[in-house]
Design a protein that fits this description.
- This protein has eleven helices and 14 strands.
- 36% of the residues lie in helices and 23% in strands.
- Helix 2 packs parallel to helix 11.
- The strands form two sheets. It has an eight-stranded mixed beta sheet, sandwiched between helices. Strands 8-7-6-9-11-10 form a six-stranded mixed beta sheet, sandwiched between helices.
- It has helices at 10-14, 23-34, 51-56, 90-103, 122-131, 141-144, 158-171, 195-206, 223-228, 240-245, 257-265, and strands at residues 5-8, 38-42, 65-68, 73-76, 82-85, 106-111, 114-117, 134-137, 152-155, 176-182, 185-190, 213-217, 231-234, 248-249.
- The radius of gyration is 18 Å and the shape is globular.
- The protein is an alpha/beta fold and 273 residues long.
Length: 273
């Protein structure tokens, strides 16, 4: 069965370490779209921080989609229409803030096109650099969130955050989805919202079968879509426990890992170099 859709994480998957797409990868994805294959971007990034990449790959021209905020939003690149949107209430944000204080970790969220935090820290600075969004320090985190937000992040050194992830997954089971997108980013979205569940909704709307989907990622927030897709692919730079759950392991983001998958499974021009 030929593949009809390629779903791509961005950071450390589609993008090289300097946040660019290699020429080989871009060419492979453009060739796949010319064959009628949908290329979908799926990231923890806010929607606005994904548009430039979507435009570079001409997703608007080919009528494709963005899954942003770890799947909490699905956006049609051609029309700008939101097909799906999930949010957290201010009360939930307040609870997460209290948990962040209890656990002594940083916290931030998104209000409009700004990243909101009470205190500047190296991890929120990284998020600002990745997304291109302005970081705004506020006197009261809870006071700054008067409307629902799409997701919240807790941030800390990887070793501490890995332990906190397991702890809060148990504590918040049945209430929120909790997963790491990077070793130092722990993300919270509405219960049941993942890249995998969002992808499931999208393909149902499009009439695409899961067996016709390739999903490629490198981190824990990619695991749901890797396990859901007909061909779940882990990057060569992914942690070993992600690789173990994938159907296929490709090369790293710095060595055209995405291009090699597209060439082999879609374009049928396998290359080992």
């Amino acid at each position: 069965m030929p593949y009809q859709m390629i779903v791509l994480d961005l950071d450390d998957t589609l993008l090289q370490d300097d946040h660019t797409i290699s020429e080989r990868t871009k060419r492979a994805l453009m060739d796949a779209q010319e064959l009628g294959v949908k290329v979908v971007l799926a990231s923890g990034r806010p929607t606005s921080a994904m548009y430039a990449i979507a435009e570079e790959l001409r997703l608007n021209h080919y009528g494709s989609f963005i899954l942003s905020f770890n799947g909490a939003k699905i956006t049609n690149c051609q029309t700008g229409e939101e097909l799906f949107s999930s949010t957290l209430s201010p009360d939930v944000v307040n609870h997460l803030y209290e948990l962040s204080r209890r656990e002594d970790v940083w916290i931030h969220t998104y209000v409009g096109d700004q990243i909101i935090t009470e205190a500047g820290n190296q991890f929120t600075t990284i998020e600002g650099e990745i997304t291109g969004l302005e970081v705004v320090e506020v006197g009261s985190f809870v006071g700054a969130v008067s409307e629902p937000v799409v997701k919240v992040l807790m941030l800390e050194e990887p070793a501490k955050l890995a332990m906190l992830e397991k702890k809060l997954q148990e504590e918040l089971a049945g209430q929120l989805s909790v997963m790491r997108s990077k070793p130092f980013f722990l993300e919270f979205t509405e219960q049941g919202v993942t890249k995998g569940t969002s992808l499931s909704q999208l393909i149902q709307k499009l009439g695409v079968k899961r067996e016709e989907v390739i999903a490629i990622g490198d981190s824990y927030n990619d695991l749901a879509m890797i396990e859901f897709a007909g061909l779940g692919v882990a990057m060569g730079n992914a942690p070993d426990d992600i690789k173990e759950k994938a159907n296929f392991v490709t090369d790293t983001n710095m060595n055209d890992g995405v291009a090699k998958v597209v060439e082999e499974f879609v374009l049928k021009t396998p290359s080992l170099v």
